[in-house]
Amino acid sequence: MEKVIKVQDLTIGYGTLTVLDKVNFHVEKSEIFGILGGSGCGKSTLLKHLTGLYLPFEGDVQIFGQSIINCEDDERRTLMRKFGVTYQGGALFGSMTVAENIALPLQEFTDKSAEEIKQIIKEKLAMVDLEGCGPMMPSELSGGMRKRAGLARAMALNPSLLFFDEPSAGLDPITSAELDRLIKRLRDDLGTTIVIVTHELDSVFSVTDRVIMLDKNIKGIAADGSAQNLRDRSENSWVREFLSRAGMKFTN
Amino acid sequence: MSDLEKTSTRTGLGKSIEEFGDVSRSFYTDLRVVLMFIGDITRISGHLIRHPQKMRWNDVFYYMNLCGSQALPIVAMICLLMGLIMGFQGAVLLRTYGAELYIVDLVGFTILKEMGPLMVAMISTGRAGSAFAAEIGTMKINEEISALATMGIEPSRMLVIPKLLAMIVVIPLLTVFGAVCGILGGFLVGSGLMGIPAAAYYNRTVQVLTLSAFNIGIIKSLVFAVIISLVGCFRGFQASADAQGVGRATTSSVVVSIFLIVVADALMAVLCYVLGY
Predict the structure, then answer these.
(1) Which pTM does this prediction carry?
(2) ipTM summary value
């Protein structure tokens, strides 16, 4: 199986504080891969290193076989255009309409005409069930709509790799389930490789094929495998207990 | 001296050296970041001069309107009042010597070379510089800067260059406008209060105001435009990702801009003196 992301001996942190020490893992093509862990274990920090926003203390991250760490700034930017990232709050540009947000990467990196861009915007909005929302400003959208609009923008250049930072955070269970279905559909229909950083266990069980669990006590990966397998058969009791809490916040 | 006193002296000295080291290191880090930012802007500007189609012209026009057209009333008001105040102050002194007509020279030269560029710069620091810092700081909180970067777009190209270009265009224009208003203020005092005939005031103004005084005012305003835009944007990028961080960045952008404007003005005054302008 082709490895889309390869992380080798990655050590990351802030200032003098090490958050994760010599972490190794990979993500395969068309896989929905989850990065899990409790608060403060370094999930979002790891995502920022995977996407090339931060540089690590040590180690390497290869995306599509090319290092995003050991390269020139121009090469990094070119590599960044090959994947999409959606952020917790959508990170839409507040001074632009939804359509302008989606159009931005197309205007910047393609030679498409205004008419073609219009057509792509329409397709992307339909894909995330936001038809007719193009002229709206981000401030007029709900939290879930903003995330979907952010996803439409991330998909503008048809990347084969997508990163999601806490896609379900702050959403009600129904909207969250809709977003989960959308993520699955992207993989099933387009073969997109998806990396999700989350601590929402319901989403983890419903969408991911494989997960890694980060543990801040060992500053590394406590477990690697499918969420169901780890919950039922992991040798690590903390991992079993963590994953067994899916749905409990509603039943309690 | 007892052993205890010796130890405490050594600790005090050691502590001072340590603090000096910390301050030096922090200064070095800050200086490095500032130089990297300026280097980035210079490189991107060079690229955009070669590829003007990559410039976000709509953003440039938006900021020209925000920082230029919308500032016209306040610039007119402040500069007119500055001219009036200088006229009044000058009138008291010049009347003593019977040299009322020299009020034209006093107001004209001071407004054109010094007060016009300075007042417009102060107004723009409060309006535009703080807005730049707040805008970029808020974008940082909302992860919009991260989103731009992971799209492969340099945030400085999208967020700094249009503001910088807009300011370089509108601040000199505002300065000329402000100078006209200031001279008009002086005229109101000279003509209305001191009884200088309007034609005489106008003729004296045209006679004494030189092209070099005008040029100096314009050059100053260009330098101030660069300072205000770069400091505002830089402080925005440096804002910590919380609401208080944006507030601090905004305040800091205004304070640092005003300080740098005054320093630059003083340096240019010395330079003009040395060069004989």
Answers:
(1) 0.85
(2) 0.87
